[in-house]
Amino acid sequence: MELFLGLITGILFGFFLQKAEVLRFEKQVRFMLLKDLTIIKFMGTAVLVGMVGITALNQMGVIALSLKATNVAAIIMGGLLFGVGWAVAGFCPGTAVGALAEGRMHALWALLGMLFGAAAYAEAYPVLAKTVLTWGDYGKLTLPQVLGVSPWLIIAAFVAGMLLLFWQAERKGL
Q1: pLDDT class of 69 with cuts at 50, 70, 90
Q2: pLDDT above 90: residue 32
Q3: Are 42 and 48 in contact (CB under 8 A)?
Q4: Cβ proximity of 93 and 13 under 8 Å
Q5: What are 83-131's pLDDT values in tens digits?
Q6: In contact, 69 and 140? CB cutoff 8 Å
Q7: How many CA within 13 A on the CB side of residue 106?
Q8: DSSP symbol at 151
Q9: What are residue 137's DSSP bridge partners?
Q10: From CA 134, how far away is CA 13, in angstroms rounded?
């Protein structure tokens, strides 16, 4: 059943990616140039839905969170690598798969680059685990734990921030 729900969720996410036209390379480039904020609006909405869903399911006891350790060096390195790859290839992993499914063959190069990067990381992991990945290790924690507040307060702040961003973007025609 879990695999079936994952498949349905993935199909729905791909459908919405396609309908929002965020699979288009041109849309990705316009986002990188801050001329079209459709992608940030789409992803902000997806993050919000995920935040609410995961928090509610966790509090109802339907799921249990499985946190990864907060590691500052890993977050910075991963974020830089992801951002550079996205800027160079014009796709993130989800949009590359969706674009390939639409028949946009140039997305194959982005996917191959991601696979190569994952293989290179796997090869480098033993060295990284003893060096860089030990820098800034804070263990398993969440933002609500750090701030000592309810997760719903964080979600409310995120909603307020996203609504402000959406309003500004729409006002400026982005």
Answers
A1: confident
A2: no
A3: no
A4: no
A5: 888 888 888 888 888 888 888 898 899 999 999 989 999 999 999 989 8
A6: yes
A7: 8
A8: H
A9: 71
A10: 35
* CA pair distance 16, 10, nearest whole angstrom: 10
d(CA 119, CA 14): 25
Rounded to two decimals, the pTM is 0.76
Residue 2: CB atoms within 10 A of its CB come to 6
Residue 24 contacts residue 96 (beta carbons within 8 Å): no
Q: Where are the domains of the chain?
A: 2-171
Class of residue 139 by CB neighbours under 10 A (exposed 0-12, middle 13-18, buried 19+)? exposed
Q: Distance between CA 75 and CA 50 in Å, rounded?
A: 20
Distances in Å between the Cα of 109 and the Cα atoms of 7, 42, 84, 156, 164 are 25, 24, 15, 39, 36
Q: How far apart are CA 165 and CA 57, in angstroms?
A: 27
Closest-CA residue to 57 (of 70, 46, 66):
66
What length does the chain have? 174
* Tokens describing residue 115: 């696979």
